[in-house]
Amino acid sequence: MAKITAAQVKELRDKTGVGMMDAKKALVATEGDMAKAVDFLREKGMAKAAKKSDRVAAEGLANVEVNNNTAAIVEVNAETDFVAQNDQFKALVKHIAAIIAANKPADVAAALAIKTDKGTVNEEIIEATQVIGEKITLRRFTVVEKNDNENFGAYLHMGGKIASLVVVDGADEATAKDVAMHVAAINPKYVNRNDVPAEELAHEREVLTVEAKNEGKPEKIIEKMVEGRLNKFLAEISLDDQEFVKDPDQTVAKFVASKDGKVKSFIRYEVGEGIEKKEDNFVEEVMSQVKG
């Protein structure tokens, strides 16, 4: 039997919001497989979804810069949140985004090698690291291009903790910006339900079927129940189907259509998502100093 650690239990609790004993039971039942444990809890009706799976785990800022028909969304990381308030760091992130939008590099290595009036992007980052006193890294970026009849929408939330970049076919820039604000706030996964991979849909249908069976529902209504819940799931993750944040009486697709447009694509960066951050134990730190 797999050994279940306290850290695993805590991670599952954070992801699903269930109690400690329920989290441990789920991990024991699934031999410590985190994804299967989440499904196990959902099938039992104890956890609706892994809402907190993308815990923010690093500091820094994201930004979006537009250069005619090209836009770049970037994330630059630092070690502490204090740096995000630093004017030099803010200027550096904006500067890097503008350089990437203008040069359209293929990857991070190519971006770091871009020539600037101070040398290269990498040398500017090294210089900023020395002045600010923290390690600074260009983590990621995406370059997006549009046609003349399309509009970019960009939005920064919390000064750049979350950044979103949207392309709308038709409509206008104000509409695209409203959709970008919605994307930042609601965090959809796909533009529309047709973009959802077949395997993700099949997996969700399977989990919902087991959940309905465990609720003791008659076989003849399970299929209808599952389709209803699957429809709700698709509406939650598909941008077009979501209730528009500025007017919940209409969907995002209907709002954009009312402006003679259609959402083409979106990108959303949340600073630190997917990065494992070292958790400092203050008590252990103090005790080690006392012993020293």
TrEMBL record:
CDD domains: UBA_EF-Ts (cd14275)
Superkingdom field: Bacteria
SUPFAM superfamilies: Elongation factor Ts (EF-Ts), dimerisation domain (SSF54713), UBA-like (SSF46934)
Keywords: Cytoplasm, Elongation factor, Protein biosynthesis
Translation elongation factor EFTs/EF1B dimerisation domain segment(s): 71-273
Compartments where found: Cytoplasm
Residue numbers spanned by region Involved in Mg(2+) ion dislocation from EF-Tu: 80-83
NCBIfam families for this protein: tsf
PANTHER family: ELONGATION FACTOR TS, ELONGATION FACTOR TS, MITOCHONDRIAL
Full protein name: Elongation factor Ts
Name of the gene encoding the protein in the UniProt record: tsf
